Amino acid sequence: MDSHKLMVKSNNSQRSFHNRTSNFQVGVILDLKSVVGSMGLSCMSIALSDFYSIHSNYSTRLSLHVRDSQEQAIEAAAAGLNLLKDVKVDAILGPQKSAQANFLMDLGDRAQVPIISFSATSPSLHTRTPYFVQAAQGDDTQVGAIAAIVKAFQWSRVVMIFEDSEYGSGIVPYLSNAFQDVNAHISYKSVFPVSASDEFILKELYKMMTLQTRVFVVHMSHTLGARLFLKAKDIGMMEKGYAWIITSGLVDLAYLMDSDVAEAMQGVLGVKPLIPKSEQLRSFSSRLKKKSLEKSPGIGRADLSIFGLWAYDTLWALAMAAERVGLKEPPKTLENSTVNLNVSDLFNFGNSEVGPKLLKAISETKFEGLSGKFRLIDGKMGSSSYQIINMVGNGQKEVGIWNPSLGIRRELNWNTTTHDTSSRENMRSIIWPGDSTVVPKGWEVPMSGKKLRIGVPVKAGFTDFVRVAKDTQVNARIISGFYIDVFKSVMEALPYSVPYELLPFENPDGSSAGTYNDLIYQVFLQNYDAAIGDITITANRSKYVDFTLPFAEGGVISIVPITYEDANDIWAFLKPLKKELWLTSIAFFFLTGLAVWILEHRVSSAFRGPPSQHVGMIFYFPFSTLVFAHRERIVNNLARLVVVVWMFVILILNSTYTASLSSRFTVQRLQPAITDVSELIKNRDFVGCQEGSFIVDFLRKKGFDDSRIRTYTSPYDCDEALSRGSKSGGISAFYDVIPYSKLFLSKHCDKYMTVGPTYRTDGFAFVFPKGSPLVADVSRAVIELTENGKIMEMEQHWLRNEQTCAGPDDNMNSITISLQSFKGLFAITGGVTAVSLLIFIASYLYKYRDFHRRVSNSRITIWSKVVAICRHFDQRDLSSGQPQDKLPESGISPNTSSENSVQPPNLPRNHSNSNEIVSSAPEELHDATTATIHSSNLEDMSAVKHSGVILPSA
């Protein structure tokens, strides 16, 4: 239907409903010669008829004014000016392309007229102005579905192919973010001009063939896309191993392509919006096919385009919005579709009164359309689920459905509670390019035919794990070793074949071309495709290359010579116990003796006497328990408890010491010549490591000077240097990684040992360039070989003749007993002793509380108070009921004990109790106290009568 017929129909409709309807003037700007434009116009024509046949009682009508933009942005802008200035439209449907919408939306914003497009899908359009309505799902809504496909097949790298236009570049940032969310990287972006020549297309395709990535995401118009796939098939890029994903724009219009294009696109995956099936959709599709308009080629040959459905729903939404706005005054005149523009007043048009109301009404319109639910969110169609399509034969096969919240499913209502929504198992079988059913791995060695160049370090010694030897018969290099076999087994375990060649990292004369860091840097420069061998993962190296998971344990240890302990040392008897244990034991001997003396002094004659005897008893009593039973009688129950616990401690300590000392005198003990790094640095000793190893940097960080670090090329040199020692031109310690250290010690088990901590490193791994897709697959293969024991079998094969060294460490574990072993024991005896003393002191203070109160309240010096209390404590307590037996072998009777020293000589024997207490105090306290005591307060001293203080005889 051309524009003239639509105008006639609109005018007739206006005259028919002149008395009871209000017409809304709607401009339509489309590329009428294009498939999408002609289809959209036909669908809007049917929609207009369907809507008003159903809603014949509505008081509003839409009058369409069609303009052809002729696929040019400037023509679309000119048509928009004509509609806004001359026709004074209330809304504009279109334009068709994103580039045209960029011009037109600014005009609509100035005139406050809604610009509603059902085919411009660039994500950046709807943010420019509120008067642009994107009545189609933007391209950004499909990036989640594409990223989900990439994640499901575990592709780590993709190539993006898009056209250089508003439509093509608008999706790029959204796709980049989506791929980043699924840990996929974009290895290359190929930008095609809209009018790209065949030569340009071939050049770009050949460039992409040299890449390792084999997953391509295509976003371009169907005309350019058809040419791209034809050329890709011609040069062999639609064969087995390739994976192609196309966006919804190409999928929707794929039926328009010729049969040779359809054949070229076999095995391509794509996404397109999910259209719910309904009876209305089937009826509309049938009527549209029967219409068979001349300007809509292709309609009737395949499924209906989503753009046609969006055009249908958009016109329905606009008609519903017009009805909500209500009646308005019709325009005075309606111009024909001819464009008559005057440059002088090009933008001389006023603001629409109906436009803002119409924009608000359509933004609030919601209904179930042919394409699904029509609902605008911030001026843009809400997102929905997407079909995952496989191009097979002459049609499209649905292999899955992607939902923004549920992920990939086989069917929309399929229960996925027990499935991984990102798994390929959630999709039906797929036919890949080349009529293959094998999932492409996503990368391949470039088709240049070259093998992967694998660098191998060259070493003069330490060749048990990596060996590069020269075969003089064939004049070739033979590369072997334990770690070389590990690499070969890993490559064989990959699910695909990777051709490679091993290349020694050497100079023309066969010597090493540099250190391990130099070899890794050559991988960074892409002179090698990988590097293998005994290469340790370090933080600095990881800045330049990627490492696989380690296949051998890491860690750096120190190897030092063994020395033997001298059993004839005059101080050998002190060595069974460490210094801190000796000091702690002596301290507890003294504290236990002091505690027993305090507990027994007032009640037992064995713990009384002159001060020298007191000190001797404190030291003598606990030590006597070591060799014989003590003869002193223990009277106080608290003292008995302390002694019992102490005897238990003595028993264990004595037994342990005896066993350790006996072992030292009967078994020869090994000990390291050097114990730790700080001792080496302090003594400025020389240390060694392998030549070219990262351990040189490791030792620098530990504090060693470069002048004190020596490198060696063979185990023999290391053995000789360790044997000589630093003072004789050798080294005091040799540092190496754990695998080499174990091998070295197995050959010299009786000469060397490891000391100090194991410094953690991440082990040996294979090296690949940054971003290499091989890293993940090789790492998985390493895990598989480790779990099934293959690596252990290879280790036993290569190192089966090497003796296992138990190492001298086992003989060193119990050389000297530390305090740690007796902390619990000392805690028990200390706790029991402390509690017993607290109970005793509390009982003593309570029993003689009146005396202590009197002393505390007296007006004498603090020192005199302390002396008075100490003399009172020193007196014999006979109230306990213990007999006053003589001290054995002391020649001192109980009546001549130390109490006599505090009895003034001029006091009579029958002195009152109150004066007895005072007499036992110092002279100053005696004078102060007797001056205040008189007959009126003697009753207050009655409590002192029971103090238990007994005056000695004269």
From TrEMBL:
Its main location: membrane. It is found in: Membrane. It holds the Pfam family Lig_chan-Glu_bd. Residues 453-801 form the Ionotropic glutamate receptor C-terminal domain. Keywords: Disulfide bond, Glycoprotein, Ion channel, Ion transport, Ligand-gated ion channel, Membrane, Receptor, Signal, Transmembrane, Transmembrane helix, Transport. Signal peptide: none annotated. One of its GO terms (cellular component) is membrane. Disulfide bonds join 749-805. SUPFAM superfamilies: Periplasmic binding protein-like I, Periplasmic binding protein-like II. The chain crosses the membrane at residues 581-599, 641-659, 824-846. It is a multi-pass membrane protein. Residues 878-928 are annotated as: Disordered. GO terms for molecular function: ligand-gated monoatomic ion channel activity. Residues 892-918 have a biased composition (Polar residues). PANTHER family: OS06G0188250 PROTEIN (PTHR34836), OS09G0428600 PROTEIN (PTHR34836:SF1). Glutamate-gated receptor that probably acts as a non-selective cation channel. May be involved in light-signal transduction and calcium homeostasis via the regulation of calcium influx into cells. Glutamate-gated receptor that probably acts as non-selective cation channel. May form heteromers. Belongs to the glutamate-gated ion channel (TC 1.A.10.1) family. This is Glutamate receptor. It comes from Nicotiana attenuata.
